[in-house]
Design a protein that fits this description.
The chain is mainly alpha-helical. It has 17 helices and no strands.
Length: 478
């Protein structure tokens, strides 16, 4: 990589840090730091939502799917569109339109309102662990991009650079910095893919003739997937729109119900088909380049998630490479920062909230920033131990969904207030999914562990309610 590309990349990183510093000077309290003063418009929130949800992990993951299965990999983000629009119609009016939630910062505060403080703490632990894993996946995505692009930069050093930038500007600026940088980053990424990445990769592999003669027909089909693939994506990605802490923060940050719903509709259409098709197309083009032997210096079998950065590093001219890599690093940072904010919010508000009572606003801010810094360091350490971005992301989602979906749906939409049932379903659901993932047990029909975790969560929730109601009825009869 030339010094021009490196300079472009460094300027971009410094700009992101500058945004964080700018908002650090304007954050007066927790309202500003965690929910952006509850006054942010729909386009900023919508682009921030899609930047956070798709981010670097799904960008790299989509490239890997395109490399392995072609255009059919785009269906993964179709489930994101379904989740976003379903949440806009069902969830947002319930949450944003209820005055009881008007001063909340986090998702577990809703659980506390629906059940009790002990149940909320369990939810906070699940969210905290899930978003630590998710933040780690983003930092790993950035490290893969960097090490695939800069031959002299190994994965460990790349992880340190990406982690340092993401953590520092998030620590300084809070949610406002996150949302406004997300908007900038998403525009950069989208423009980079449309005007640079796709056209130059397409020409490099010989246009349609080179693509068509290199890959088998199933790579150009939208049916090159099993029903299990779609069910596994859907059961993990659609529900995250109902339990994701980063998404609740943006609901709280929106001006009103109308703005929040508009933001979610914007996010859905950007997820699919726009980002989905762009991401898998670049992965498909990297597969063509590998099959053609067009990547110089490459020998042996390639990690599908590395195909995209390696391709771009070899085809883009000086200057353009720096811009394109900045675009992809934008996607990484846009999700990593949101996940760090979510985990920090869980820790400071839901788990350590009593510690802040009686403290000055200035001290609260400083402690919140230090905790965010600590969480970021832990996320970097976790990323150091991992190898595959998409799997780590989906595992983190699955753990949160299986632990949190049943209680929040039951409480918000069915008026359930049984804290014992909610707590037990969280523990059983999350533990079942985590246990199945860690054990590596082969599951029936190739279905995801999350489906079994959700089933266990629902069964335990309904069983406790049934038997408690039965006992109450017997007592009344006696």
């Amino acid at each position: 990589m030339s010094w021009i590309d490196i300079c472009i990349f460094v300027v971009y990183m410094l700009t992101m840090l500058g945004v964080g510093f700018y908002f650090m000077k304007r954050n007066a309290n927790h309202e500003d730091y965690y929910v952006g003063g509850r006054s942010i418009g729909p386009w900023y929130i919508g682009l921030s939502v899609v930047a956070t949800d798709v981010g670097g992990g799904f960008s790299i993951g989509l490239g890997g799917l395109g490399f392995v299965m072609g255009l059919s990999g785009s269906w993964m983000l179709f489930t994101g569109l379904l989740g976003a629009w379903l949440a806009a119609v069902v969830l947002i009016p319930r949450v944003k339109g209820d005055s009881a939630f008007a001063k909340f910062f986090t998702f577990p505060q809703i659980i506390n309102h629906l059940y009790n403080s002990s149940t909320a703490k369990v939810a906070a632990i699940i969210c905290f662990i899930g978003y630590l894993g998710f933040a780690s996946s983003q930092l790993l995505a950035g490290a893969k991009l960097a090490s695939g692009t800069f031959p002299s930069l190994n994965l460990s050093y790349a992880l340190l650079v990406m982690g340092a930038v993401a953590v520092i500007y998030t620590v300084m600026g809070g949610l406002k910095a996150v949302i406004y940088t997300d908007t900038i980053q998403w525009i950069i990424l989208l423009a980079g893919l449309i005007f640079i990445g796709i056209p130059m990769s397409y020409n490099y592999v010989g246009g349609w003739e080179g693509i068509h003669t290199t890959l088998p027909p199933e790579f150009f089909s939208f049916t090159n997937l099993s029903w299990q693939d779609f069910v596994n994506w859907a059961i993990t990605i659609i529900p995250i729109w109902f339990v994701g802490m980063t998404l609740y923060q943006r609901i709280f940050a929106a001006r009103d119900v109308k703005s929040a719903k508009k933001a979610w509709f914007i996010a859905g259409i950007f997820e699919w088909p726009i980002m989905a098709i762009l991401g898998v197309s670049l992965g498909l083009l990297s597969r063509v380049a590998v099959e053609q032997g067009a990547l110089s210096g490459f020998t042996g079998e390639m990690d599908p998630e590395m195909g995209l950065p390696v391709l771009l590093s070899q085809i883009l001219p000086v200057g353009i490479l720096g811009l394109m890599m900045s675009a992809y690093f934008s996607a990484v940072l846009s999700t990593a920062d949101s996940c760090l904010m979510a985990a920090s919010g869980n820790l400071t508000t839901d788990l350590l909230g009593n510690f802040f009572k009686g403290k000055s606003l200035k001290l609260e801010m400083r402690i919140s920033q230090l905790l965010t810094l600590g969480i970021g360091i832990i996320a970097i350490i976790i990323a150091w131990q991992m190898t595959e971005v998409l799997s780590l992301m989906l595992y983190s989602y699955a753990f949160m969904v299986s632990g949190l979906l049943v209680p929040v749906v039951a409480g918000l939409f069915f008026g359930q207030t049984n804290a014992t049932a909610a707590t037990a379903s969280m523990v059983v659901g999350g533990s079942t999914t985590a246990g199945l993932i860690v054990s590596g047990i082969s599951l029936p029909l190739g279905l995801d562990a999350n489906l079994f975790g959700l089933t266990a969560s629902l069964i335990i929730f309904l069983s406790i309610i049934y038997f408690q109601n039965k006992d109450q009825k017997l007592s009344a009869d006696v």
